[in-house]
Amino acid sequence: MYGSLDISTSGMIANRTRLEAISANIAGSDTILNQDGQYEPFRRRIVTLAAGDPSGNSDQGVHVASIDLDNGPPMMKYEPDSAFANADGYVGYPNIDIVTEQMNAMEAQRSYEANITAAEATKSMMSVALQLLA
Amino acid sequence: MPDPLGLLGYAAGLNRTGPMVPLRGGSEGPAADAPAGGFKQMLQDQIDQVNELQNDAKHAMEDLAAGRRDDVDSVMTATLKADMAFRMLLQVRNKVMDAYEEVKQLRI
């Protein structure tokens, strides 16, 4: 009975996770050290969505299949005075384009809103159906 | 044709142009597959289910307020489900009370 509500909720959860990954990308776009203080440029997080619900063995809805790390090369900046510069004087920075991430964030936000709108439509359909009884 | 939501068979059944077919086997009469307890038992079961949904929603809301979970969307869906289930139950109750009033006003 509540199938479409659960599907919409799975879409909301998936898009919320996607937005969390995008937030992490934006926040880490200038980060070149890892949490132990060693040189390791932040790598872009890529969320992959898949159909179905792994917990309920259902093929309805959507879930986050994996959050992968971008294996692309870092963006090299010429900073010869930096303590982390290589032999040629370049420091590798995360290969994250803020503009792309902002667009992805907008897309995730719109998808979330679309799922909310679908859930509202389901709710109003149920409410209207109850008026039959009244 | 792929049918992930299982809706096509149902829709095809509704769209057929022939005479209407009852959703459940009608030849044995309505009482053939009725539960043992009858309407009262069915109503009680429904009330229990609604109560369960309400409790789920209450616990989810408490967990959210206490910071034990952070998925607002699931909590809102649980609340919405409980709300819709209760409205349905309320309509059934109103209908039953209407019927009761009708019977009460019968003149013997």
Please trace the helix and strand order of chain B, writing H or E for each element.
Answer: HHH
Helix/strand/pairing category of chain A: alpha+beta
Instruction: Specify the biggest β-sheet of chain B.
Output: none
Beta-strand portion of chain A reads: 15-25%
Q: Give the overall silhouette of chain B.
A: elongated
Biggest chain pair contact, residues each? A-B, 19 and 15 residues
Query: What helical percentage do the residues of chain A reach?
Result: 40-55%
Helix and strand content put the structural class of chain B at mainly alpha
Give the end-to-end Cα distance of chain A, rounded to a whole number of Å: 20 Å
Task: Report the oligomer.
Answer: heterodimer
Query: What are the segments of chain A in which pLDDT stays under 50 over at least 5 consecutive residues?
Result: none
Largest beta-sheet details of chain A = 2 strands, antiparallel
Mean pLDDT of chain B: 78
Radius of gyration of chain B: 20 Å
What's the overall geometry of chain A? elongated
- Counting DSSP H or I runs of 4 or more residues, the number of helices of chain A is 2
Describe the protein's architecture and organization.
- The complex is a heterodimer of chains A (134) and B (108).
- Chain A is of the alpha+beta class and 134 residues long.
- Chain A has one domain (2-130).
- Helices cover 44% and strands 22% of the residues of chain A.
- Chain A has helices at residues 3-27, 98-131; strands at 45-53, 58-69, 75-78, 90-93.
- The radius of gyration of chain A is 21 Å and the shape is elongated.
- In chain B, helix 2 (38-66) packs antiparallel against helix 3 (72-104).
- Chain B has three helices and no strands.
- Chain A binds chain B through residues 2-3, 5-6, 8-9, 12-13, 16, 51, 59-60, 119, 123, 126-127, 130, 133-134, and chain B through 4-5, 71, 73-74, 77, 80-81, 84, 87-88, 91-92, 94-95.
Task: Describe the SSE topology.
The complex is a heterodimer of chains A (134) and B (108).
Chain A: H1 3-27, E1 45-53, E2 58-69, E3 75-78, E4 90-93, H2 98-131
Antiparallel strand pairs in A: 1-2, 3-4
Helix pairs in contact in A: 1-2
Chain B: H1 8-15, H2 38-66, H3 72-104
Helix pairs in contact in B: 2-3
